[in-house]
Amino acid sequence: MDTDRVYIPQLLHQPEKTLTLEIDAHLADLETLTPVRAEIQVTHQATFLTVKGWAETIVTLTCHRCLKNYNHRVAIAPEELIWLQDDPDPATLPLEQEVGIEDLMETLPPNGYFHPANWIYEQICLALPQRQLCEADCPGIEVPNTVPEIQDSPLVDHRWAALAQLQRQMGQDPRGE
Questions:
Q1: Residue from 63, 16, 69 nearest 43 by CA
Q2: Cβ–Cβ under 8 Å, residues 32 and 5
Q3: Would you list the domain boundaries of the chain?
């Protein structure tokens, strides 16, 4: 059976309506140091699919404080129910519709395909830390303690020269003193 996509009706012909797939590859759009190693079990439950498994890899992230790259191990064991539901005809949908929390679920058409690599990619992306820090006590970008005096050194950006000249003409100290 194809590991890139699984035809959902064929799951009904599997023993116990369950298919187990293994992935050991680099996934498109996910930069990892090591290949993604994963095992996914898909079970057809008549009106929904039960998808569960595990995955692990190492990704390179950028610290939000110091901007250095660091390696982060990702090890997940996700589980999800995917409802089997035909896509509604867009012409019959209302222009505006209130969506309740119970309606926020993943759906696939009963005669469609399940894409295991896409599912594991999404699960890994959801597991990446929102706050990426190379160390818990990362000091951030080092900033010099001293600021050079404006009069003692030339301006770093020549576009400010006109403003400094205007301030001198008006008798103001460009340092705000």
A1: 16
A2: no
A3: 6-87+101-127, 148-177
**Whole-number Å distance between alpha carbons of 177 and 164:** 14
Residue type, 63: C
For residues 108 and 114, the answer to whether their CB atoms sit within 8 Å is yes
pLDDT mean values, one per 10 residues, the chain (177 residues):
81 95 92 94 94 96 93 96 79 66 77 94 94 91 65 64 83 60
C-alpha closest to that of 124 among 43, 38, 48: 38
The residue assigned the tokens 């301006």 is 155
Q: Output the six-digit token pair for 175.
A: 């340092």
- With a CB cutoff of 8 Å and minimum separation 6, the contacts of 137 are none
Other CB atoms within 10 Å distance of the CB of residue 66: 15
3-class DSSP state of 116: helix
